[in-house]
Write a structure and sequence with these properties.
The chain is an alpha+beta fold. The protein is 39% helix and 25% strand. It contains 5 helices and 9 strands; from the N terminus they run H-E-H-H-E-E-E-E-H-E-E-H-E-E.
């Protein structure tokens, strides 16, 4: 589903002249793994040890469950409020609830897009996408289908700047409009 939306964004679908609807992407929820594991462990410990130590044991279990639920709620809220929006004009990253931040890079100003993926990110099909526009770099954390997103962003940047379509994995478009290849350093 996500790959289909990204492909449509990059103009790789059948309808070439159709207006591009904004695509909203959330990072992969990998950050929720440990809080969920802690909640599961706490849920397993409570019935096992509820009557074992009297009042002191119960208060420790209640504190553990409370901490696990609070950690899960904070992690989920951070994940839920991180949204990357790509439309026909810009790439925008919005974060936060109490301290909102918004970073945007116009598509016409994009000079390069780099993907960074670790072993587990390759396994889950995610990665960090760095969007460069001059001296500014916007990091899109844990994005799904990062190489497809890289290709779509470079295609959108070429389309917005009126350059020929030169997008591909590892491609960097220089100030003069020429395409060079960039290696990940791994």
């Amino acid at each position: 589903m996500c790959a289909r939306r990204i492909a449509r964004l990059g103009g790789m679908d059948d309808v070439e002249d159709a207006p591009r609807a904004p695509v909203r992407l959330r990072p992969r929820a990998a950050r929720l793994f440990w809080p969920v594991a802690l909640v599961w462990a706490a849920a397993w410990l409570v019935p096992q040890h509820w009557n074992a130590d009297g009042g002191a044991g119960r208060s420790a279990l209640v504190a553990l469950v409370g901490f696990a639920v609070l950690l899960l709620a904070v992690s989920w809220l951070r994940w839920w409020t991180t949204v990357c929006t790509v439309d026909a004009w810009a790439v925008t990253l919005r974060r936060g609830v109490l301290r909102r931040s918004e970073q945007a890079v116009p598509l016409a100003a994009i000079t390069g897009v780099t993907v960074h993926r670790g072993v587990l990110q390759r396994f889950w099909g995610s990665g960090h996408v760095d969007v460069r526009a001059g001296a500014t770099t916007l990091r899109l954390p844990r994005m799904p289908a990062p190489t497809l997103l890289q290709t779509a962003l470079l295609a959108g940047a070429a389309r917005a700047a009126g350059r020929p379509l030169l997008a591909g994995p590892g491609a960097v478009v220089t100030e003069s409009g020429e395409r060079t290849e960039e290696r990940n350093g791994r």
